[in-house]
Design goal:
Strands 2-1-3-4-5 form a 5-stranded parallel sheet, sandwiched between helices. By secondary structure, the protein is α/β, with parallel strands linked by helices. About 50% of the residues lie in helices and about 10% in strands. The chain folds into 2 domains: about 20-145, Response regulator (Rossmann fold), CATH 3.40.50; about 150-215, no CATH class.
Length: about 220
């Protein structure tokens, strides 16, 4: 059937290049002091990188919109009265937003003191403040690709389907399902679960929603 003139055909999903991923991914540093790595990341193309001195609310816009949170362990978390400052904040952030990637960073002596704190385990990655800026770029790029690369999205869905439902699904089938969801613009958990023929597909939906809503 031919499309009518007011109807626009939805293009099939394509792999994003690194430049596109850099333009989508939002990185938030939570640090009460300026940190040179922030400007280095921006210069490297991560234009949606910003810093806030502390968190006023776990619901504040900067936190809700960020895909990657990079949190200092000292000097933040004070406004929300966390006893262990940044480490307490990290635990709260991971509980509130389990699908966001949270990186903890600190000076070397701080890291040794807090090495066994639950906040360190709650974080997805730990870096030293003295680490080369390139190390921060590598971690950010890895997590950004994980969220916004079509190839990585498919791998995550395959792993989750196998882990949660014992289903082994071909790459072509997953891409076809993603295109179907994207074409219909219905990113609800119910619809995504139906398309993938699974019950309670909340974890799969989180992966799909993050990837597809960046294309919508």
């Amino acid at each position: 059937m031919n499309l009518r003139f007011w109807e626009k055909k939805t293009e099939p999903l394509k792999e994003r290049n690194l430049e596109e991923i850099r333009g989508i991914c939002k990185v938030l540093f939570i640090d009460d002091k300026a940190f040179p790595v922030i400007d280095i990341l921006k210069t490297a193309g991560w234009k949606n990188t910003k810093r806030i001195k502390d968190v006023d609310s776990l619901e504040q816009m900067e936190v809700k919109e960020a895909h990657i949170l990079i949190v200092d362990i000292q000097g933040v978390g004070k406004k929300l009265k966390f006893k262990d400052e940044g480490l307490g904040l990290i635990i709260a952030l991971k509980q509130k937003y389990p699908n966001k990637r949270v990186i903890v960073y600190s000076a070397e002596h701080q890291g040794k003191i807090q090495a066994f704190h639950p906040g360190i385990d709650a974080a997805d990655k730990r870096l030293s403040k003295l680490a080369d800026p390139y190390q921060f770029q590598v971690v950010v790029e890895g997590y950004a690709k994980e969220a916004f690369s079509l190839t990585e999205c498919v791998k995550r869905i395959q792993n989750q389907l196998l882990k949660e439902f014992g289903k082994s699904t071909e790459t072509e089938k997953i891409i076809a399902n993603l295109n179907k969801i994207y074409t219909n613009k219905d990113f609800s958990v119910k619809n995504i679960s139906q398309v993938f023929n699974i019950q309670n597909g909340a974890a799969i939906s989180n992966i799909v929603q993050l990837f597809l809503t960046a294309s919508a």
